[in-house]
Fold:
Amino acid sequence: GDEPKYLNSPETPIYHKSSVLYGLSEARPEIRHKNSVVIVEGYMDSLAARQGDFKNVVACGGTALTEDQLVMLKRFTKNILLAFDRDTAGKLATERSIERAFANEFSIRVATWESTAKDPDECIRKDRDEFDRALSSALPATDYLFRAFSESFDRTSPEGKRKIIESLLPYFANMKSSIELDAWLKDCSESLGLSLSVMYDEVKRFQGKQKNLSSFASKTASTTHSSPSLSKDPSLRNQEYLLGLLLTYPEVRVIANQLIKPEDFDDIELQNIYRSLSTEYNQSQSGEAASRADLLALYGEMLAADM
Structure:
């Protein structure tokens, strides 16, 4: 009853799921023809879509889109339509995929269906036309994000407005088109009742923090040997390296706490490690911090439990 519908396998030497889009070989002609691709999470979603005569559909394997997958898609189209599951993991994967797609200059929309179906497979089996309507009326990613964060926070209060803007800042910073960014900032400023100059100031401040953190990481990398145990997935490898920096240099955590959320990590074990790091940092402010040896032992046990 509590088990998942299907369990995604980890990376293996034979199957690098972070570099694969399931069903691409069959969907490629229709992707070229329609100049767009529909991306779902699971393999069964992709199969159900094809049986429902949605032929430009591929599956990303149950995680957010990776850099390798986006590079692969660029050969066929730059128009993406996300139709991920409706659970919390699916929403987080949608947000992460949008952020990466913006950074790679894709045009991206998000499909949401009205029925209670939890994923495209179930939606198509219950009502094929409902899924078709969801694709046809898919929201631009900018509208989807603003609506999602506005539902999470009170957009009428100063505190709620601040939290909405903070949630949107990573997406603002990754948008390559200055024209699209300007239009989006104008829409957000009008919806929140803020001046456009305030929105631009927040974006510049966020980009400055990112630059400082990136500069610190680059300087540290020049004096640190890379670990042979890091993941082969480039995005996960970067996330593992960041956790290593935070453990080695506690003074950086004050910056990380302002910029990074546990959900920014793609792997659940990395999310748990970052949460414990954040807790340890907060405890250090009151003199309750664990020793570094204790932390290393804890993380070793967390990772060993997953093997």
User: Anything to note?
Assistant: The beta strands are 37-40, 57-59, 79-82, 107-110, 139-140. Residues 224-228, 286-291 have pLDDT under 50 and may be disordered. The chain is about 60% helix and 5% strand. The CA atoms of residues 63 and 93 lie 6 Å apart.
